[in-house]
What does this fold into?
Amino acid sequence: MIRSVSFIGSGNVATHMARALYKNQIEIRSIASRRLRSAKQLAAPLKSKAVKGLSSIDRKSDLYIIAVPDDSIEKLAKSLLNHLGPKKRVVHTSGATPTSILEDRFHKAACVWPLQSLSKDKRIDFRQVPICLKANNKSFQKELKVLFNSIASSVYLISDEQKQALHLASVIANNFSNHMFTLAQTICVNHDLDFDMLHPLILETANKIIDHEPIAMQTGPAIRDDKKTMKLHLKLLGENKEYTKLYKELSKSISRHKP
Ligand SMILES: NC(=O)c1ccc[n+]([C@@H]2O[C@H](COP(=O)([O-])OP(=O)(O)OC[C@H]3O[C@@H](n4cnc5c(N)ncnc54)[C@H](OP(=O)(O)O)[C@@H]3O)[C@@H](O)[C@H]2O)c1
It folds into this structure.
């Protein structure tokens, strides 16, 4: 049974996960980060030890969670192996990184990917965060499922291939939509309009697809093939080549995906 955890990283994911585990009586033995100040900020309220780098990381934790940028996971896994040996339970939290990056080094390796956009300064109910889990053996998978079921209501067992596809889907659904909000806000600002006026529309768009197929909920000039309206919008976009290109491509894609 996993009763104690150490974190490598003290950023967005480490903050939310460590707080949720601590609330659930899991001991957070140490938090490692390159900047000691950032590790200390997270560690202090969790009665944990903040450490700079891996040399002083706790050696007796039941589980080590690597929550660092994707490009640093491999390097840190190598250092962790040098410090602790291959017998430790080690997981990373990346959607795009395969579990094999750890499996080659540790007997018990896994990925625990929170399928949510997490920012350390934005409060979130961690119980509502879906957790996608892939472990390299059945008993470790079971231990992780028990641990994460205690802090999150949905823990999904998925393959690495499914995880990468789900990560792509989440980038399109979340990051791309958010970028559209940024462009919409720019248009509002340029015309002396308050972006808040669009909030009800944005919320309704997200709410509708909870119990309806997104394709059936598509509205707007592209799905209706309202050429005059689209022409007017392109005129309004004027000299902005980037927005014009996006508008045309997205409108074409919408008209190709009719229910
Ligand atoms: N944020 C999200 O919404 C989200 C959701 C799901 C999964 N993920 C995944 O979770 C992982 C972490 O993402 P994040 O958003 O939490 O990143 P983040 O907020 O940028 O935090 C990364 C942390 O890693 C530390 N770090 C970086 N290099 C390090 C090193 N060499 N040694 C020790 N610590 C190091 C950083 O602190 P120092 O600079 O002080 O070292 C920082 O505390 C990524 O794999 C990401 O794909 C993120």
Q: What stands out?
A: The chain has a mean pLDDT of 96. The pocket of NAP is lined by residues 8-14, 32-35, 38, 67-70, 72, 76, 93-95, 113-114, 117-118 (CB under 6 Å).
